[in-house]
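User: Ribosomal RNA small subunit methyltransferase J, Sporomusa acidovorans:
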Amino acid sequence: MIAIDLIVTTAQHATSSIIKQAEATADKLSVPFIPRKGLSLAAIKQEYQISELLVITGNGPVIHTAAGEYFFHLSMAELRIKNLKSGNHDHMTTAMGLTAGMSVLDCTLGLATDAIVASFVIGEHGLITGLESSPLIAFITGYGLQNFVVASDPALISALRRIKVHNADYSEHLKACANNSFDVVYFDPMFRAPIQKSSNVKPIRSLANKQPITVEAIRQACRVARKRVVVKETTGSGEFVRLGIKTVVGGKYSSIHYGVIDCGPWQTGGDQP
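Assistant: Predicted structure for Ribosomal RNA small subunit methyltransferase J:
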């Protein structure tokens, strides 16, 4: 049997349109489509000796992993936006120095929670691009951003729709970016020491890029950013020191902090980091 890492299938009793969508998804991801035919997901996994399944349902795509299900959801983005509307503080947007009309390159899009909040703050005249190196995560997140509906909040829907998703590795993408092409470049890597209570992240740890940020990536980010490079990490992380980041901000009792590098316009031949 040929080794297979991923299979696309459908929910039970799928409509013809869902089946067509599943076939198109399998083609896009260059993986096999297996008709459900009444089989359980466990039976399909056992037959094809795989641990991950992408299931196309009427409510959107769902990845079934050994650690649980992964599907697009707003996570904490909706609550954070409600807090901003109420005039409350958000440490990430403060660390980024975000204002309306700015441009942001999110190098590690993942669930897009932070990107959604940033998109809301920079507004309709802002620009936000998200990079995600995992084809599966990029697919799920991209689909959700364009299709998820929040009936009571058109401003939140607009924030989702404005985010442009690219399945790309930030190390290579940054090298191709022009000098000073975004106001802010942002990194939210998989934490070296995971926060165990963040159960919504567990299913994607096996799918996500776990490589630590390199000093070269930070250097490239400083070239690309007109104003700031921001790195999100767990409080007390040694990553800030390793990457040469001296300014760290965040709540006194928060488990998350943000490393900030003020870049300023990059001049060719200059002595920036």
